[in-house]
Every structure is written in structure tokens, then in C-alpha cells.
Design a protein that fits this description.
alpha+beta, eight-stranded antiparallel β-barrel, single chain, 190 residues, 25% helix, 5 helices, 36% strand
């Protein structure tokens, strides 16, 4: 599994209805994308109390061939580049993903928590601890699914959780889920 996200920061006066309509119109195009486990079409909206207006899809890929095809195979990421310019794409190597009790419910919220590892520590211990936390998070009420991934260039952990309702008291950035494509969850959770 690989995790990926790009963030499109939008002006404070941007009509977020444009993003909502874009997702309503185009979101289903990834519902059967080969190699994709999950794509969460995420937004932060100042009108709903967020600090910024942002479109920030988050992906869990079952294979790198699918991720590559999405990014430079034409037709998918090309649309983002044409509409907003080419954003930086963050990429993490998957450490684990766990379905929650609400995996069969629609996901309406998401949280992403990024943790930098101290430079003088062997990553084995904090990653093992984060894997234990991943399982505790997945057992929480309202969790659709939760994933942990690592960026070994920056030595950071990203803990991403989808929620069937309002997230509880958990650290990290909060998002609203506009659409969830899940073509490869059987492989992802297998």
C-alpha cells in the first residue's frame, strides 16, 4: 500500500461550491480505477469553521502502477493540473491499514495527523508504537477505516482515518469527505 495526497489551497473568498460540483460530476470516475484502494475527496471549508479553503484528496493505493497511471498516464491528474496548476504530491509508504466497525457506512469526515520522528531514533520503535495506535483508533466508535504510512525521506508518520460521523477528540487536520471511491478495499483490507 502507498498513501498519497495533494493539497490545493484556495482563496478565502473562493466559492467552495465549485469544488463540490466538481466532485459531484467527476468523483465517480475513480470508483473503478484499477490499482486504487481508496480515494477520499476531501475539503476544508472556511464556511464550516476550517482555517482554510482547501481541496485535498487522499489516496491509498494497492499498487504503484495504478498510482503512476493516475499521476502521469493522462486524463486524471491532468484535470487537476489544468484547473489549479500542478500541486506537489506527497507520498508515503504504507505501514498498515485497518477497517473499522463502520467500514460499511458512508465516510463523512476524515482526520490526518502527521508526526515527525526525532532524528536520533531508530524508526522501528515509533513505527511499532504507531501501529498499536492504529489498531486502537480503528476500534473507536465511528471509524470507517484507518491507515498508517511513513515518509522515509522526512522520517514522518501520517495517520489517516475516515469517520462515519463527526470525529471524536483526535489530533490532526479535519476534513469533510465529499465522495469516497473504494474500488480496491478487498485487496487493501485483505
Amino acid at each position: 500500500m502507498d498513501a498519497m495526497q495533494y493539497e490545493v489551497n484556495l482563496p478565502a473568498d473562493y466559492d467552495m461550491g465549485i469544488i463540490r460540483r466538481r466532485v459531484e460530476t467527476l468523483g465517480s470516475k475513480t470508483d473503478d480505477f484499477d490499482g486504487l484502494g481508496v480515494k477520499a475527496y476531501l475539503v476544508q471549508d472556511q464556511a464550516n469553521g476550517a482555517a482554510v479553503n482547501q481541496y485535498a484528496p487522499f489516496y491509498l493505493w494497492n499498487d504503484t502502477a495504478g498510482m503512476s497511471r493516475f499521476l502521469w498516464g493522462g486524463g486524471f491528474f491532468t484535470g487537476i493540473c489544468k484547473s489549479f496548476g500542478r500541486p506537489s504530491v506527497r507520498h508515503w509508504t504504507g505501514a498498515g491499514v485497518v477497517p473499522g466497525a463502520d467500514v460499511d457506512q458512508p465516510a463523512v469526515g476524515a482526520t490526518k495527523n502527521v508526526q515527525l520522528l526525532p532524528p536520533d531514533v531508530d524508526p522501528a520503535v515509533p513505527v511499532a508504537e504507531a501501529m498499536e495506535a492504529l489498531h486502537r483508533t480503528a476500534a473507536m466508535p465511528g471509524v470507517h477505516s484507518s491507515a498508517l504510512a511513513v515518509d522515509p525521506a522526512r522520517w514522518e508518520l501520517v495517520h489517516f482515518t475516515l469517520w462515519s460521523g463527526e470525529p471524536g477528540i483526535v489530533p490532526g487536520t479535519r476534513y469533510q469527505v465529499l465522495h469516497l471511491s473504494t474500488p480496491g478495499t478487498k485487496v487493501l483490507f485483505g
